[in-house]
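hey can u run this one w/ iron/sulfur cluster bound, need the structure tokens asap thx
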Amino acid sequence: MTRRPTVEWQVAGACNYDCSYCIQSPRFRRGRPRQAELEATLAFLADLPGTWEIKCSGGEAFAHPLFLDLVVPGLVALTPHRISVLTNLSADREALLLFAALTAGRLAVVSASLHAEHVEPADFAAKVRWFADLVGPEVDVVVNQVVLPGREAHALACRRVVEGQGLRWFPQLYKEKRPPSERTPGGDPMRVADFPDEEALRAVIGDAPGPRQANVAPSYLGWRCFAGVDYLVIDKDGQAWACRTSKRHGQGHLGNVFDGSARRWTAPAPCPYQLCPCTVPANRGMIEGI
Ligand code: SF4
Ligand code: SF4
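ok here u go:
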């Protein structure tokens, strides 16, 4: 797969939802970079060579009051990059209309997360359909949903609703903190939850889903990966990391974009981790052989 350089930018730590299964604990799900910090991040992104995909996430990106006033206009005016967003799509239609107008011709991927604790799936799917029609077929619009053990039938019902709107549905298996009894030195503190009903799970995600079909957090241990080189994660505090897993392990720190110290690595390296929890690197060609 051709490598497509990508930055995941946590535009806001805060979120307007409080999902029971959120991978980010409420303690960390807070905070918003200040204007000067956002401007420093934009300057860092503007300096990246070539055209990148900048995937804005959170918390909830639209929950930052400056998302539509500074972040998105800044990305359009100051950088040549394509813009993506991971959002719960709770922003009102006026805000979404503005977002679509600002990003016209530059929008790459919209990942709309369905959180059935907060929205009716049918209403949500209809809103995503409206937005997909607004931005047009050149934008990849996908509906993500966390699949919880014991809730496979509900996930399947949601899948049908989403696909009934002609949209792509992308399941993400629930990840949880590893119980103390399973923790080993250097081992991953997270794991995919147990899904005892294998048949029910297969009905939802298929037999052997690839990274475009489902997020099952596979292991790419030992595979050559361009994380830190052509893929990086910038958190709400401006810290830049090679990938989410490296951050969790306190490794792969690239510096801070707020103070100008962030530097990309110059060469790929074998993945040292047992869990790759996010499909973005795999789906952007960062892992050789995928
Ligand atoms: S919308 Fe996303 S970030 Fe916000 S609480 Fe739910 S899972 Fe967490
Ligand atoms: S394969 Fe995944 S976990 Fe491993 S270094 Fe690359 S992005 Fe990180």
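The chain has a mean pLDDT of 94. anyway lmk if its weird
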